[in-house]
Amino acid sequence: MAQHVRRAGVTVVLLCLPLALQQGSVLGLGLSQVNLALVAVMAAVALNLLVGYTGLISLGHAAFFAVGAMAAGILGTQLGLPFPLVLVAGALTGAVVGTLVGLPSLRLRGLFLMLATLALHFIALFIFTRYMLANFGPSGVFYAAPSIGGFEVGSDERWYFLLLVFAAGAVVLARNLVRSRHGRALVAVRDHDIAAASLGINVTRTRLVAFAVSSSLVTVAGVLYAYYLGLMTNETFTLPFVVGYFAMIIIGGMSSIGGAVVGAIAWQFLPQVVETVSIELSGTSPALSDAVAKYQGQIVSITLGILIVLVLRYRPGGLIGLWTGARNAVRNWPYSN
After folding, report:
1. Which residues pair with 232 in a beta bridge?
2. Residue predicted with more confidence, 204 or 106
3. Neighbour tally for 327: CB within 10 Å
């Protein structure tokens, strides 16, 4: 009963959030930051499926964003296909490319697999750059506002509800997957692939399915990201972009769908919160406010770096693990020693 009440409360908050942000920003956050956080939630959940649950370290996250951006550019901008078809084609393309990229995982492990996926990053960046320069020029790839059934998705409010549906869909899909027999197979392969094979688990298929599902979700996120921003350049797909997603799942909690969600939100919102703090300090301490505003990027990087170190050292379960531990302690408090 309590779980249903919490879900209903979360649903009401999410549906009312655009109205609340129209009345005034919360901690300086606007609907555009929330929309970018929803895209990050999709991609972080996908990465956690691959890294946290299957134990396959991949640096090709930005590459699949680039695949999604190219799919949107070719099919949507150049060929003029409807937006839903572009999304479906992007998902299928990501699944196929992800399966091909997952082939090295059948023989490579750890650092060697990471280097193989790093090569994918630079290959995808090169292909996207050539595509951009050949068809759109150095200014980048442009995307018109999409429409679904004649309903144009042009405002931040409309984008919010669209992205909320996809982010919630990614979370539900990932939760159902990890709770199923296939999810238990992912964890078994991660913990000990030889023991998993001895139990009858098809290790090859399990790894390829993990790559396909994760890559498909990220590619769809790349399509949505491209359409939402309206302009994509090769400078978007950088290594810090990839490292940021690893930081999200570390901060939120590895091997946890909820952790990926929390980590993505924290990573996306912290810069804006720091900026809001600097503005609030301007009335009481102008010197401190100027310092915070001047070194905002460094403060955010240092804060996130310290948070990652603390999580890895003291709370490997991440923020979601900290919350779960505190909640269980409160529940069991009358009976604890």
Report:
1. 141
2. 204
3. 10
Cα angle value 179/185/187 (rounded, 5°): 80
Per DSSP, the three-state class of 237 is coil
| DSSP H stretches of helix in 49-192 | 61-71, 83-102, 110-135, 156-178, 181-191
Distances (CA, A) of 263 to 41, 245, 254: 8, 9, 10
Q: What pLDDT, in 10s, does the model give residues 281-301?
A: 655 666 666 776 677 677 777
Nearest to 257 by CA among 168, 130, 171: 171
Give all domains of the chain, ordered by start, each with its CATH number.
Answer: 30-335 (1.10.3470)
pTM value surpassing 0.90: no
Q: Please answer whether residues 223 and 75 qualify as being in contact, where contact means their C-beta atoms are separated by less than 8 angstroms.
A: no
The Cα 291–Cα 287 span in angstroms is 6
Residue 71 · residue 141 · CB < 8 Å: no
* Whether the Cβ atoms of residue 55 and residue 210 lie closer than 8 Å to each other: no
CA dist 318 and 307 (Å) reads 10
